[in-house]
Amino acid sequence: MANLKDLSKQKALFTGGHRGCAGCGAAIVARQVLMAAGPNTVVANATGCLEVVSTIFPYTAWNIPFVHSAFENAAASISGVEALHKSWVRQGKYDKKVNFIAFGGDGGTYDIGLQSLSGAMERGHNILYVCYNNEAYMNTGVQRSGATPKGADTTTAPVGKIKKGKEQFRKDLTEIMAAHRIPYVAQSVVGNWRDLTSKVEKALAIEGPKFINVFQPCRLGWAYDPEMTCEIGRLSVETCVWPLYEVLNGQYKVTKPKEKKPVVEWIKLQGRFRHLLKPENKPLLDDIQAATDKNWEDLLRKESLTPQVKTPELKPS
Amino acid sequence: MDKTNIVARTGNEAMAEAMRQINPDVVAAYPITPATEVVQIFAGYVADGLVKTEFVPVESEHSAMSACIGSAAAGGRTMTGTSSQGLALMAEMLYIAAGLRLPIVMADVNRALSSPINIHCDHSDTMMVKESGWIQIFSENCQEAYDNMLQAIRIAEKAKLPVMVTTDGFIISHGMERLEILSDADAKAFVGEYKPEYYLLNFEKPITVGALDLTDYYFEHKRQQIEAIKDSKQIILDVAGEFGAKFGREYGLFEKYKMDGAEIVIVAMGSTAGTAKVVVDGLRSKGVKAGLVKPRIFRPFPKEELAESLKGMKAIAVMDRSDSMNAQEGPLALEIKAALYDAPAGSCRTVLSYIYGLGGREIKLEDIELVYNDLSEASKGKAKPKVSYLGVRE
Predict the structure, then answer these.
(1) CB-CB neighbors (< 8 A) of B57 in chain A
(2) b or e along A71-81 (b: 16 or more beta carbons within 10 Å of the residue's beta carbon)?
């Protein structure tokens, strides 16, 4: 595990000069994941913000091999790359050890790419899929997705005279991935570089399919000042809106906040929830708090139900 | 050339056999009738260790082509197979494979598109993606399917374009015929080694594949792709020439059958051409100056060459196994007419168009005799319908 000083001296594998917004959380995810992965990495990227801001021809922000083909297929694309590597190694044509990482936003992962993701995970490719989850279709202008939380204002589930934003709770993709019984599933967050890089290192040391769902505040879609990205990320963990945890070979391990803060502390910083602070919307706010509490308790129960076997320290590749 | 092995094989078996000999690095595929057997048989080769291929049994055709794109971009010789709805589901990725200039080769077993759902042969699936940028090669029988697969690898890798080799669903795919199989050594020597120029697994020269191309570059890149499909015509001829010289079976952009002295001609693709040949033989023995032109390459469309071969005809019938749903006629007829329009003055303007065989409706010798009969009458100036629907109850 490298320290911050070491990481800061690394050659940037995801460079500056890309077209991400000021305060873009997706770029932080790409940069920190690659810091942990190192140069022997191939990236496949779903269509979306990250791909659009980083590869405007003739420029690229990727100092490693990178492939993008479409929106719903990052998992299938990287499985093709990984399959070729496996084939070449078996044929004795190639001997380099390579990390295979796919990046997709929540739209490309929770929704349109779910089938492709599920298929790749079930087939057992040696890949790491990283979802940079900003809870809506940000690239096309903040439309609701399966990851959008209840009550959020988006352009396809807007707050109006009658409606109060998205009416449904988000789906729990991390648990869907855990249900694939793959060796490693985790949640991480923008704003905790140590958590993210150590989870990536851990994942890449494991053979087989891995999935990390990284909660990524989006200053455009969530409507906050750009310097707040990391702070809002950390607050999402402290309020248990986005618990940090991992499921290693079925064993849950939750990183608990020192003090569980009320969800409203997180909500009040974001323009997409502005309407929830009106007195008449108090029941909706209570609803969101209750659901957050229940999810948190469920998670702790899962942790308590899985035996806490001490696993040997994994060495990064 | 080693001794060839003469066996009885179905079209699907013939294509799988070609794939075994090609021994690609990666095959990613999803089952669909009537193409399933191609990759099913191939999966058996993988299971028995007869090939070095990594087989990726994906969860959809969309992912099949996506994984093929990943593998081909990474530098691997990559193949797949599909049909009908599977090809339709792949459509998005077919355009991307061609735009990224990836030499993927596909066994494409022609089957009608839904709706209504139907599993039998017509060409509507392949025609649906005729603008995708893939080279499209049609096969008349099992032998051509096998030979075309071997040639397709060479064509794709030289042209840096993907190639689909088609057979007619059930008619060829499940029909057993005599097949001459090359020795493994000859097949291997013919397809050679693939040496990609740029590829993802080359860390010495990292590349970004699939960048965002806006108003300032997209057109130039598409222009290059347009040029590549034009250039592929010569590549197809060169590969066919080498194949013919080595193995004695001649291929071109299209086949001319009994065109010497012909006055009336049918243009038809796939297995129907085989049926038409029988009719032509019969008519010729009766002194009717009938001929046949069988396009093998639909993309790139050999416009000038086809127009030249149809020069001096008194009447032409184009037989389409799909309709364009444009309230006009089928795709092959439209292309032939466009070719004749640009041909030198005096070329044949009597072109009859026939839609036939949709959803696997049988095309019989009598149907084709009827077409030649129409052509005879049309060549004598008798008015005939511009578009006819052959073998349908109306």
Answers:
(1) 123
(2) bbbbbbbbbbb
